[in-house]
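Exercise 3.2. Students should predict the tertiary structure of the chain below and write it as structure tokens, then compare their answer with the key that follows.

Predict this chain's 3D structure.
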Amino acid sequence: MKDGRWIGFVAGRYVSRGRKNSPSPVFSVLGIATGVLALTIIIAVMNGFQLGFIESILEISSCHVRIEGFKSTGDIEQGERLRSVPGILSVLPFEEINVLLRGRGSNPRGALVRGVPPNAMSLDPGLAAKLEIEDGFFDLYSPDNIVVGAELARHLSIWVGDDVNLLSITGGFQDEEAARVFNVTGIFRSGFYEYDLGWAFINLETAAALSGDAASPVLGIKLKNRWQDQRAIDDLKSVIALFPDLQSASVRSWRDYNRSFFGALRTEKLMMFILVGLIFIVVGLNIFQAQRRTVLERREEIGLLRALGASVAAVRLVFVWDGFIIGLTGAGFGLVSGLLIAFNIQAFFTFLESIVNNLIYVMNSISGFLGGSAGEGEFAVFSTQVFYIKEIPSRVVPFEVVLIFMFGLFSAILAAWFASGKVSSASPTEVLRYE
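Answer key:
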């Protein structure tokens, strides 16, 4: 029995024919498939939320690399030459000031106003992609124009064409330039509630005037690949060294000024991976018990194989192949189903909600027929009253998909390997002896 092809044949027979008193391999396959399916969908939805938040922060607020610590506008004009650095996608000069805004008859509300060039949308395609202009235009060519977030506009009761009073608390209350009236030319929505509620954009020169002596301009740099930030920082520092006016500037990566937030998201995702991954431990234990029972039930067959010349390792490999077939089938089926749902997550949740709402309707009808009170409202997995989203996000990361598949596959293989340890203690003479 030196030819190893018989191992796969025997393992396939064991899987297809099942066991005498053991659970069918179908349940093991379904267990692996359920774990892979659940983990694929959950991680895809979590990626959709987390990457949406991360990209909103990086594209709208933080940028990939920030250059700070210089004062004059001339420095900004010199800094625009940094676009020639390899890997740089865009360079956008901006300045942030804290203000109080007041609309028509509304109470003053604090906000963060960012001054940007009038052509900011063309200078920074990432910003343009994340800001959806719901009403009006992103028009900052006039020094008295302002573009506000949708939730901020709702709180201030203002619309496009209305005037809003702005008082800068960055430049000081004593400065006459600090209080001005702006005309709302546009209302944006970013999908990130904090920005929609507390952000506005004005002309960069106006922001510098409102800041006064506290002016602190920043160069926001976007990279073609944000994971190459350290290489880009090294290149930028070598270029900055050529500009005497920028010698005091500091260069910081998005990893530095968002460390705590991104760290919390990473921990949350890791814990979710572990919790949902417990499914594989449970399924693996079930496979382990089933394989142990199989080894005991097939002692005569094992003895016969040993008597024909099969080694302990070869007989043990039969049961490992058994686990491999179960793991591959279950993980493959679960992965395909999970990806199908993940790429059509909106339709899946709509279908799920319709089933639940139909059941609620039937229960309410029965309750009403029996004289009870009917419930109100409809079921929604992600209600817009709770979550600040228009649709359920989903993002599939190839590396994580491969990792989930390998979890499902190796949980079955390892369970079968440990369960087949009994094979080494089975002596052919003892097994084949009728006592």
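Discussion points: The chain has a mean pLDDT of 78. The two ends are 28 Å apart (CA to CA).
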